[in-house]
């Protein structure tokens, strides 16, 4: 039975949301331009009602889509393509924004909530601000409209409520239109990670919040209230700065934990697309604060606040239109919305630019010459550095768009971001970072004190000297023998010290004003953390065996990777390390299980315990128990010892990912001063696992020991079994299982070869494998008279794995710095919001 | 001249410098013949080449040869101009490799051989998939 109702309901909500958004735009527009007070009031009520209806409709879409996903209605394309029945509840939530339609929906959802807050907190600005809000919502809703204009054959938007049979022309739907697949395609296992549950909503809340200051700026231009919009907009800009920053951090942290490129930031176009608006957003906060204090930088505030939102739209266009196609593996699949996205971008770009141009002459500006010793000057320089820093990233990130643009006009352009993005961007960005570090130290002194040349030298003397001494010490201890790195270190330390000095004096007077100092300390810590964790990340998995891993691999690979065989200790980073074998993770209990301790069934997610399973002394499953696993993930247990004692165990992972192939994820051992980051650079291939030598047949007594590839072995038991892989055996067969115990280096391993004898038809042989030792036993024959059995023994290389490990010093300073920065934003936001409330209560909104 | 004007001129100058230097350091999309020429005049810069894997009449990919240890491999790629070239890659075969519609290799010629440092695959996405692969 197809569930038509729920989809139709969803579609109804989408149409309602779209129409109500348009009605809201119209009403609020009329309310803004109406001169008659009563009429204005009437249109305001209309607008309010319109936006409430819109919000209810958006919530309706969200709930409907979630019901479809939650109930596994696989007749719907969205549920089929992004989820399956095995996904736990919290990942069903991430399914929601896995597709493009859902992520548009998430964005709309936040806009709707922010809109409601604006309606309740701002009386004076409600009409013009909500006109902008509703226009944006109309554009966004059109992206999920899924309506085809008859006659023109033009599709507007891509609906999340489309039926599978309409999305996929599979022949089965011709024969059986009511066909519903049993299960969905599922969520990419790479995204089945808790960060992917909270990262997208945070990021989109940040995106959505940038609309608020933009709307206030447009409203300011529109109503010719050039000065007044800044106060209500500023707390929102700070909020956006904190949330967007947090979202970016979460993305970086997820990448650090999950991807194997060895870092938290890869300068991928998708990452750059959020980084650039965030930098400009931070710059706009600075100019807005300057304006609030000294009535300067108003024009700059307009330009920057508008730029932030336009940049958000531009990055949306880049990541969703398919234009990045060849340049990024992360971009969304092209839904054919590029025209609509372009229109969305151009509409706001043109409206904002035209409006600003028309009003430009009227925007008040100080005619006074800027003094080099004024705080305004230094903050302005800082904001400029932030913008240029973003601009440097924006230019190469736009190469693919530039190529497409040239092609559209008949020209040719073939520029591309270099393959080594990290090196390419870092060598430019480091100098901007040095500038930022120095400016955020010096600028803060100007901020708090009216300063002349002499006073400045007095104030700066101590922090400068301390920072210099600190730099000299650290340079020598950590061997920072690189000019740009040493400068960055100095800039970072200087900011931390200078701002700490200011923080101390500010806290004494008024702690609520400490946001700026706290935020800048965070920036300094981040710079130092980035410098060490990225600049001084060292490879510790050095090949000290004197043997090449493989001649066909590059020298670098041979030098920087370690080939580990099971149970053969190596030394690395001052530890004795030993690879213990492949592990698998159960779905509902935490722990790792030896791959050869489980028996597979027809269902790849279901396995049976061959024996009692323990992890760290805790019993997980009893022998014969059936349980669920994550079949796509393999973990490689590596023990780290020092002085004969086990210090820790790492489980780096390889995931067989349906979209990206083999994905290696590191395991990280965290210490205060450094992270030890280990990932698999080459897992043992299936071919190597199947590369068995010629079997050797031996006749063994039940009770005596024998040698298998130089290991001592014996037959533990011989018994008849009635089940294989959870399935009972047909009574015309007799299955005998032998338990072969082999004394390995560290433990006794067992193999369970089986002989199946058919009474009517031919039986078969099921070999028992000990992958760790590279041994395969086949039970060939039984001689009950002599109590002997014929055993086939073949061997291959013991299980191996190639690892790469890095030490990342002081990465915790980076995480700490980011959190301090966020805290600074929050302190400042609270202060500005209080100020706004205070002024509002006095009737000065 | 006012100080703010000087300031604006400096900003513009820096912006222009950024554009020029970013573009100068940029890589380019080229064909194999152009890449070969670049290498023969001594350029060691990595470039991008877009193309497809070589396929036989039945649409099967041909020319993939694993390295001795199976952790590296080489394959035959045909660029947009139809030129065939063997490409070496120092990593295992990516999983969806043979299913890819389009391949972008980033690397350079060393002698007669093209060595890829990075491979980007464009796989047919789920949205364009016309057949169900589950539950049928």
Tell me about this structure.
The complex is a heterodimer of chains A (845) and B (136). Chain A contains 23 helices and 32 strands. Chain A is an alpha+beta fold and 845 residues long. Chain A has 4 domains: 1-187, no CATH class; 188-417, no CATH class; 555-688 and 802-807, no CATH class; 690-798, no CATH class. In chain A, α9 packs antiparallel against α11. The longest helix of chain A is centred in the N-terminal third of the chain and has 34 residues, at 37-70. The two termini of chain A are 56 Å apart. The model of chain A has no long low-confidence stretch (mean pLDDT 89). With 136 residues, chain B is α+β, with helices and mostly antiparallel strands. Chain B has a single domain (27-128), classed as OB fold (Dihydrolipoamide Acetyltransferase, E2P), CATH 2.40.50. Chain B has helices at residues 3-25, 32-40, and strands at 27-30, 47-53, 65-66, 73-79, 84-89, 102-110, 113-122. In chain B, β3 (65-66) and β4 (73-79) form a beta hairpin. Chains A and B meet through α15 and β3 of A and α1, β1, β2, β6 and β7 of B.
Keywords:
heterodimer, A: 845 residues, alpha+beta, 4 domains, 7-stranded antiparallel β-sheet, 6-stranded antiparallel β-sheet, 23 helices, 32 strands, globular, B: 136 residues, OB fold (Dihydrolipoamide Acetyltransferase, E2P), 5-stranded mixed beta barrel, 7 strands
Give the topology:
The complex is a heterodimer of chains A (845) and B (136).
Chain A: H1 4-33, H2 37-70, H3 77-82, H4 89-96, H5 100-121, H6 126-143, E1 147-149, E2 154-156, H7 164-167, H8 172-175, H9 195-209, H10 211-223, H11 230-258, H12 269-294, H13 298-320, H14 338-359, H15 375-397, H16 399-408, E3 415-416, H17 421-448, H18 453-478, H19 483-509, H20 515-535, E4 538-539, H21 555-560, E5 562-565, E6 570-572, E7 575-584, E8 593-594, E9 598-600, E10 606-609, E11 613-615, E12 618-621, E13 626-628, E14 633-642, E15 645-650, E16 653-657, E17 661-665, E18 667-670, E19 674-683, H22 686-689, E20 696-701, E21 706-708, E22 711-721, E23 723-724, E24 727-728, E25 733-743, E26 748-751, E27 754-758, E28 764-766, E29 768-770, E30 775-783, E31 788-795, E32 800-809, H23 811-841
Antiparallel strand pairs in A: 1-2, 4-32, 5-32, 6-7, 7-8, 7-14, 9-10, 10-13, 11-12, 14-15, 14-16, 16-17, 18-19, 19-32, 20-31, 21-22, 22-25, 23-24, 25-26, 25-27, 27-28, 29-30, 30-31
Chain B: H1 3-25, E1 27-30, H2 32-40, E2 47-53, E3 65-66, E4 73-79, E5 84-89, E6 102-110, E7 113-122
Parallel strand pairs in B: 1-2, 5-7
Antiparallel strand pairs in B: 2-4, 2-6, 3-4, 4-5, 6-7
């Amino acid at each position: 039975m197809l569930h038509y109702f729920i989809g139709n309901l969803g579609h109804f909500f989408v149409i309602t949301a779209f129409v109500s958004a348009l009605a809201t735009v119209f009403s609020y527009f009329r309310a803004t331009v109406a001169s008659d007070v009563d009429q204005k009031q009437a249109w305001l009520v209309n607008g309010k009602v319109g936006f409430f209806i819109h919000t209810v409709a958006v919530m309706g879409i969200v709930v409907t889509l979630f019901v479809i996903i939650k109930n596994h209605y696989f007749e719907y394309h969205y549920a089929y393509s992004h989820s399956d029945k095995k996904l736990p509840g919290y990942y069903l939530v991430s399914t929601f924004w896995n597709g493009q339609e859902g992520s548009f929906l998430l964005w709309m959802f936040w806009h709707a909530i922010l809109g409601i807050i604006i309606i309740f907190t701002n009386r004076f600005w409600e009409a013009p601000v909500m006109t902008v809000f509703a226009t944006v919502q109309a554009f966004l809703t059109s992206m999920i409209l899924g309506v085809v204009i008859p006659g023109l054959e033009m599709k507007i938007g891509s609906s999340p409520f489309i039926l599978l049979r309409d999305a996929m022309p599979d022949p089965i739907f011709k024969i059986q239109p009511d066909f519903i697949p049993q299960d969905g395609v599922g969520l990419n296992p790479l995204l089945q990670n808790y960060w992917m549950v909270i990262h997208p909503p945070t990021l989109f809340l940040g995106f959505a919040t940038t609309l608020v200051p933009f709307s206030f700026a447009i409203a300011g231009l529109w109503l010719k209230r050039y000065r007044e919009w800044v106060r209500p907009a500023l707390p929102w800009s700070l909020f956006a700065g904190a949330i967007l920053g947090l979202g970016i951090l979460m993305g970086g942290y997820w990448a650090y934990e999950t991807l194997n490129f060895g870092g938290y930031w890869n300068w991928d176009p998708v990452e750059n697309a959020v980084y650039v608006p965030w930098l400009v957003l931070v710059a706009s906060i600075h100019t807005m604060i300057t304006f609030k204090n000294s009535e300067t930088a108003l024009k700059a505030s307009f330009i920057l606040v508008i730029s932030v939102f336009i940049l958000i739209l531009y990055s949306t266009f880049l990541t969703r239109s398919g234009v990045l196609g060849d340049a990024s593996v992360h971009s969304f699949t092209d839904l054919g919305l590029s025209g609509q996205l372009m229109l969305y971008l151009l509409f706001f770009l043109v409206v904002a630019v035209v409006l600003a141009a028309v009003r430009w002459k009227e925007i008040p500006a100080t005619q006074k010459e800027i003094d080099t010793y004024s705080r305004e000057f230094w903050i302005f320089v800082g904001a400029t550095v932030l913008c240029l820093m973003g601009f440097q990233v924006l230019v190469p990130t736009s190469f693919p768009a530039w190529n497409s643009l040239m092609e559209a006009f008949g020209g040719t352009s073939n520029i591309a971001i270099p393959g080594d993005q990290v090196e390419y961007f870092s060598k430019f960005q480091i100098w901007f970072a040095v500038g930022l570090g120095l400016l955020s130290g010096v600028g803060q002194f100007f901020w708090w004190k009216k300063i002349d040349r002499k006073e400045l030298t007095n104030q700066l003397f101590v922090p400068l000297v301390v920072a210099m001494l600190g730099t000299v010490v650290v340079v020598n201890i950590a061997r920072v023998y690189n000019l740009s790195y040493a400068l960055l270190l100095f800039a970072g330390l200087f900011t931390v010290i200078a701002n700490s000095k200011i923080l101390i004096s500010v806290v004494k007077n008024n702690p609520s004003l400490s946001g700026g100092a706290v935020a800048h300390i965070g920036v300094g810590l981040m710079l130092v953390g980035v410098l060490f964790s990225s600049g001084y990340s060292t490879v510790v998995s050095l090949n000290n065996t004197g043997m090449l891993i493989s001649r066909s691999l590059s020298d670098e690979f041979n030098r920087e990777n370690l080939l580990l065989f099971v149970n053969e200790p190596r030394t690395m980073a001052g530890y004795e390390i030993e690879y213990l074998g492949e592990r698998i993770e159960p779905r509902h209990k935490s722990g790792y299980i030896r791959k050869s301790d489980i028996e597979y069934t027809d269902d790849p997610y279901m396995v049976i315990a061959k024996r009692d399973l323990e992890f760290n002394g805790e019993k997980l499953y009893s022998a014969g128990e059936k349980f669920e696993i994550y079949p796509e993930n393999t973990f490689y247990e590596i023990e780290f010892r020092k002085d004969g004692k086990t210090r820790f165990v790492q489980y780096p992972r390889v995931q067989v990912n349906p979209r990206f192939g083999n994905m290696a994820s590191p395991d990280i051992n965290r210490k205060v001063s450094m992270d030890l980051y280990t990932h698999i650079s080459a897992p043992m291939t299936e071919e190597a696992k199947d590369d068995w030598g010629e079997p050797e047949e031996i006749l063994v007594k039940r009770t005596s020991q024998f040698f298998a590839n130089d290991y001592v072995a014996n037959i533990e038991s011989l018994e008849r079994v009635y089940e294989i892989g959870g399935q009972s055996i047909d009574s015309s067969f007799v299955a005998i299982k032998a338990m072969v115990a082999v004394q390995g280096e560290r433990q006794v391993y067992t193999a369970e070869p089986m002989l199946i004898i058919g009474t009517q038809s031919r039986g078969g042989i099921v070999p028992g494998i000990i992958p760790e030792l590279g041994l395969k036993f086949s039970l060939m024959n039984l001689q009950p008279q002599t109590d002997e059995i014929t055993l086939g023994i073949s061997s291959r290389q013991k299980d191996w794995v190639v690892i790469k490990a890095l030490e990342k010093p002081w990465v915790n300073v980076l995480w700490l710095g980011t959190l301090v920065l966020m805290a600074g934003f929050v302190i400042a936001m609270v202060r500005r919001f209080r100020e706004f409330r205070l002024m509002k209560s006095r009737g000065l909104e | 001249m006012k100080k703010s004007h000087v300031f604006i001129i400096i900003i513009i100058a820096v912006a222009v410098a950024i554009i020029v230097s970013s573009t100068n350091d940029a890589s380019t999309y080229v064909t194999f013949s152009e890449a070969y020429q670049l290498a023969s005049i001594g350029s060691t810069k990595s470039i991008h080449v877009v193309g497809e894997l070589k396929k036989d009449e039945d649409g099967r990919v041909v020319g993939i040869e694993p390295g001795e240890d199976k952790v590296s491999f080489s394959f035959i790629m045909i660029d947009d101009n139809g030129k065939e070239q063997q490409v070496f890659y120092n990593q295992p075969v990516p999983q969806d490799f043979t299913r890819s519609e389009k391949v972008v290799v980033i690397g350079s010629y060393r002698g007669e051989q093209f060595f890829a440092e990075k491979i980007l695959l464009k796989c047919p996405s789920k949205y364009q998939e016309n057949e169900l692969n589950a539950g049928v």
